[in-house]
From TrEMBL:
This is M16 family metallopeptidase. Residues 62-202 form the Peptidase M16 N-terminal domain. Residues 463-486 are annotated as: Disordered. Keywords: Signal. The keyword Zinc does not apply. Belongs to the peptidase M16 family. It comes from the Bacteria. Residues 1-18 form the signal peptide. SUPFAM superfamilies: LuxS/MPP-like metallohydrolase (SSF63411). Residues 211-397 form the Peptidase M16 C-terminal domain. Pfam families: Peptidase_M16 (PF00675), Peptidase_M16_C (PF05193). It comes from Comamonas jiangduensis.
Length: 486
């Protein structure tokens, strides 16, 4: 699922936030706009409650239009799977649409549509989510529907038998028929030996072949408990009324213990890793993944948290806007080495963090030349630092994106849910923006010199192979293998 979160999307892939003609502007102007937006939102501040069964309720009033977004977030995803059952979290997301004690297969979606709403779901390494966007007058109805299927998901084996074939086809389309998808899947497996981040969210095909209906039911029984869940609602709502409705629907679900997963900490990497993936493709592709620190605490920043923030800024300097460093140095000009080049700092998640440099070699250039050119850009910043204009530009864009996000009730709900999954407070956006504004050019230069050694690097190279006769070329579009949509 493609999320619309501004700051969290920047965290996942800073290039996604680039504006075609975003001026550098001034931080002071944007800070004033940010302060004005915060002041305007004080009258409709987000509130968080804990229901008697341990489920969380987070409500963000927004009275500008008679609509509401209702989301159910589970702090349960592919991370909770064990060997032999990869893909079961995503399979359960599919089966949640196949019935309950009260509803027949497919009836949930038909009822949401009859209420004038739209709905979907998504699975990630870190979480699973379900949402409906409806007229705010029908909020109580979808809360009752969602609470019912959360507590009483029920379907015949025949529904699973059909749906698992749909999921296998999804895997084929997203991964097995997508050369870059295959590369990224293999790269993750090479990076993580113990941590479940090394497994595909959709699951390995042999695990899907062996999966049973009871595997899915058991995963629901073990993990879909109130203590692992949060209801997030944003839109034209009254907080007290929503709380009453939540207690009457979700609050009636009995509390029960959750399964407890093993830590499965990733051992320290002690040397360069390198893989090649051979697939029918027109162009080579290179992805270089460095292990870096994660952001864990936004209220009392540790040195590791500050380094992770500085890495975000570093990625934005490299690839945060049109004409940023990677594009200027590697893609533009007569001596260009790449057809495309990108940078991402995935430093917010329940598992380990990565900084990834990637690109497509230009005609006549080799993957090794592109790899060297990408590393040279990091080395240059480590030696020379970044200039004030670059730093100002990326910070200004962050501030602007946060202001724009507050125009979207879906964006507000998604942001609140993501931060809850990470154990962060409801004002994490504000805290992160403030912390990012404090990152200096010296901080960026320091992390560029600290976290890009070969011992923390895993390189994946897509080696193009001839296509079988008669096989049509597939588009080499970027894939988001870490979040799957129903």
């Amino acid at each position: 699922m493609k999320r619309t979160l501004s700051l969290l999307m920047l965290v996942a892939s800073l290039s996604a936030a680039a504006e075609n003609s975003a001026p550098a502007g001034t931080i002071s102007t944007s800070l004033n706009a940010w302060a004005s937006a915060q002041k305007a939102n004080q009258a409709t501040a987000v509130q968080q409650f804990t229901l008697a069964n341990g489920m969380q309720l987070i409500v963000q009033p927004d009275r500008r239009a008679p609509t509401a977004v209702h989301m159910l977030w589970l702090r349960v995803g592919a991370m909770e799977e064990v060997d032999g059952t990869t893909g079961v979290a995503h399979a359960l997301e599919h089966m949640m649409f196949k019935g309950s004690q009260q509803l027949a297969p497919g009836e949930f979606s038909r009822r949401v549509a009859a209420l004038g709403g739209q709905e979907n779901a998504f699975t990630n390494r870190d979480y699973t989510g379900y949402y409906q966007q409806i007229p705010s007058s029908r909020l109580r109805d979808v809360m009752a529907l969602e609470a019912d299927r959360f507590a009483h998901n029920q379907w015949p084996d025949a529904e699973f038998t059909k749906e698992i074939e749909v999921i296998k086809e999804e895997r084929r389309m997203r991964t097995e028929d997508n050369p870059r998808g295959m590369l990224l899947e293999q790269l993750s497996a090479a990076i993580f030996m113990a941590n479940p981040y090394g497994r595909p969210v959709v699951g390995w095909m042999n695990d899907l072949d062996a999966m049973t209906a009871d595997d899915v039911r058991n995963f629901h029984r073990d993990w879909y408990v109130p203590a692992n869940a949060a209801i997030v609602i944003a839109g034209d709502v009254d907080v007290a009324q929503v709380k009453t409705w939540a207690e009457a629907t979700y609050g009636q679900i009995p509390a029960r213990p959750s399964a407890v997963g093993k830590p499965r900490e990733e051992p320290q990497q002690i040397g360069l890793r390198r893989i090649e993936v051979k697939q029918p493709a027109e162009q080579a592709f290179v992805a270089m993944a460095y292990r870096v620190p994660s952001i864990r605490n936004v209220e009392n920043l540790t040195a590791q948290d500050k380094d992770a923030l500085a890495l975000l800024v570093l990625s934005a300097v490299l690839d945060g806007y049109d004409g940023a460093r990677l594009e200027r140095a590697l893609v533009q000009g007569k001596d260009r080495v790449a057809d495309s080049a990108s940078s991402s700092a995935s430093v917010m998640g329940r598992g380990p963090a990565l900084f990834i440099l990637s690109g497509v070699p230009a005609k006549g250039k080799t993957p090794a030349q592109l790899e060297k050119a990408l590393q040279a850009q990091i080395a240059r910043i480590a030696k020379e630092g970044v200039n004030a204009a670059e730093l100002q530009r990326v910070k200004t864009q962050w501030l602007a994106s946060q202001i724009y996000e507050r125009d979207s009730v879906m964006g507000q709900a998604q942001g609140l849910g993501n931060y809850w999954v990470l154990g962060m407070p409801v004002n994490a956006d504000d805290l992160l923006v403030k912390a990012l504004m404090d990152i200096s050019a010296a901080d960026v230069q320091r992390v560029a010199g600290q976290y890009f050694g070969a011992d923390q690097l895993t390189v994946g190279t897509l080696v193009p192979q001839p296509r079988p006769a008669g096989q049509a070329a597939r588009p080499a579009s970027p894939v988001d293998a870490n979040t799957l949509q129903h």
